[in-house]
Specification:
This protein is of the alpha/beta class. Helices cover 53% and strands 13% of the residues.
Length: 264
Amino acid sequence: MEFDDWSTHPLLADRRRGFLGAPMHDLSMAETLDLADEAMRTHRPLLHTVVNVAKLVNMGKNAELREDVSTADVINVDGAGVLWGARLLGVALNERVAGVDVMTEMFALCARKAYRPFLFGAEQNVLDAVRATLARDYPTLEIAGLQNGYFDQGEEAGIVATINASGADCLFVALPTPHKERFLKRHREALLPSFVMGVGGSFDVYGGKVSRAPVFIQRAGLEWLFRVAQEPRRLWRRYYETNTAYIAMLWREFQQARRNPPAL
């Protein structure tokens, strides 16, 4: 299936920005959801992704990941660190739109408008927990299908066929970076759901396996620290290395901007 080019959509064309070599869109949550609704209503396939500090750092080291993210139709700013860093360097971004919040709002949209989501990824017990939570929160929501994230690459064609046969309007892919980006790049043209979104570990949050930081911690940009506090042995080194690399990237970009100020 060939997908439509959303780059000429007036909203997306006007709101596209660049920061540290990565494209992103300056969109609100409401605007993002309107685009998703438009895609499902008109059956025009739209691929959504987000950028946070970790993904920006990894894009700098991984050309495949950079291409996978850059070719998505809608790229939201997920991390507060990205928002603040971009503003520091003069890039006009107004709002953080976290991927987990987009997913949660999408569930509500699906329930209101009778769209059918397919849930793909994570552990089976997490999927079962997400299904139970959705049944509690949105009793009328019909789930098109579920598939856990434990499979070999040779099984991917069968998974795509299962997703397509379900008649799903939207697809949420809960695989880690860069696996979800690679999967979606490989199968983008074959997938039939109109709205497709990589959600990483968001099923873990919605299903209750992982606690979300309180709102005041999210607003302070310290959600990463809350995650480290929950799993310090597993996460402290990852966040230390990522945050250090990001600060270095910002410093280099700041120094370059000082040496080469824009012409008046």
